[in-house]
Amino acid sequence: MFFKCTHAHHAAAARSPADEGAAGATVSNGSKSLVVDVHCHRECQAAMEMMKAEAERVGFVPLQFGNDITRKVNAAQIEFIKPKMLSLEERIADMDRMGVDIQAVSISPYQFYYWAEPEIGRKASQMENDDLAEAVARYPDRLVGLGTVPLQNTEMAVAEMERCVDELGFRGLEINTHVGGDELSAERLAPFWARAEELGILLFMHPAGYTSPERFGDHYFLNIIGHPLESTIAISQLIFGGVIDRHPGLKICVAHGGGFLPSYAGRMDHAYHAREDVSHGLPKPPGEYLKKFYFDTMVFAPDQIEFLVEKYGADHVLLGTDYPYDMGEDDPVGLVARAGKLTDEQRTRVCGGSAAELLKLN
User: Where are the domains of the chain?
Assistant: First the structure.
């Protein structure tokens, strides 16, 4: 084993790979430093209840895509994850079992509510953020908050972002890959990006469904292809739309290893040099801007983590679990441990060192 445990709950939870499954434990290794999970979720039941009437009013149907099998599986999963979403005690117990010191908790992506009228969206965001702040206050040494803002109205989003940071003590925000009909590169969002850069907060970008689902109904393609594709599009919009060039200090972590783009960035760089319609208005090749992003470890394969670290650096790869969903990683530290090409120093950075700096945990 490459790590030495320093936290009591790590020592209690640690198992060798041969012991996986014993007493429900899946942790393969402890850690010699903080283990920080940047990708985990919590639901706000009060906001969910409030928004049911608004969804009916505007004709919004949540989780409307996918075939009958997917809807059946989703319904069954809700019963499993609901206690984990709501019970902080169960969450902390699971963190101990998984070897996670600190969770940077964000709202369930299906509670962005960007589709609502701005004033209602603001009320929902405030309700969700207040609920999250109460949860963090109960376990301040184990939980930090990543708030949500009503991006359908830029002025309201900036005001709520400032409240999240200044009043609630959150370390960042979670945002979707688009805002209704607007891409993240939309001109109206410029004040949001400028203020986020000034505040120096972490922005965790997570997709919610897929915007063109016509061919994605079967086989849970909506998630396994759609989610990474949404992130791929959003990153590309931010790069080619000039947002990253204008705001080089932005700290954006993209869920699910950044989607498909980090593994195939050479194609856009080739196009940049080959075609004027690609390079127009972009001072540097797009791959240079891609290096500004951060990516979580929600890729399931050790060799993919090795690739991300080699390509973008251990300081740009952050541990994530997608807790408590079934598309999550239950042994996050063990997954990083199985990335055999990494050095101990790189593993320490990935498992929590880099996230601790971005979230200002010191």
Answer: 33-358
Encode pLDDT of 163-212 as tens digits.
Answer: 999 999 999 999 999 998 899 999 999 999 999 999 999 999 999 877 77
- Domain at 33-358, CATH from 1.10.260.40, 3.20.20.140, 1.10.10.10, 3.30.1840.10: 3.20.20.140
Residue carrying structure tokens 């963090």 = 136
Tell me whether strands 143-147 and 172-175 are parallel, antiparallel or unpaired: parallel
338 Cβ partners below 8 Å, 6+ apart? 28, 302
Q: Contact, 36 vs 8, CB < 8 A?
A: no
For the chain, the C-alpha Rg in angstroms (whole number) is: 20
| Single-letter amino acid code for the residue at 34 | L
For 198, the token pair is 């000034």
| CA proximity to 287, closest of 228, 231, 236, 249 | 236
Q: Per-residue pLDDT tens for 268-286?
A: 999 999 998 888 889 999 9
Nearest to 309 by CA among 250, 360, 351: 351
